[in-house]
Amino acid sequence: MRTVRPRTSDLHPVLWTGLAALAAGAVLCVIGWYGMSGERHAARQLPYLASCTVPGSALIIAGAVLLTYGRSTLATARLAELYELLVAVETPPRTRPAGNLLMVPGGTLWHRADCPLVESEPEAVRADVRAITAAGLGPCPICEPQEGS
Q1: pTM for the model
Q2: pLDDT tops 60 at residue 4
């Protein structure tokens, strides 16, 4: 299953709010600088500082925080989606040969069908007493199979 990368219009609303706050803060800082630059006396520059530059700086900081939060939220959502995709994949049922005893060709042990050592071996074949004796196989020390099972 192939997923499509999210478009910018699909991004979290917090990201757009953060971008808007950054833009508004930048505009306020530019207005404050422009107003202050035209005044010669410090007493007349203070209103521009208080009404434009300080709130503009606060908006820039708030926008940066919102962008960071939005990006981490987006990354968390993507990670959760990837985890769901990994967990949702079902392994197809493997067909096992009929019988309780198994052996791997070229191996040295014989196993029960539920032994963890042969569960991941697709080439495991059914073993009977004659095949075990002919190949000189020993019992698996993990599953401890019995010859009659």
Answers
A1: 0.46
A2: no
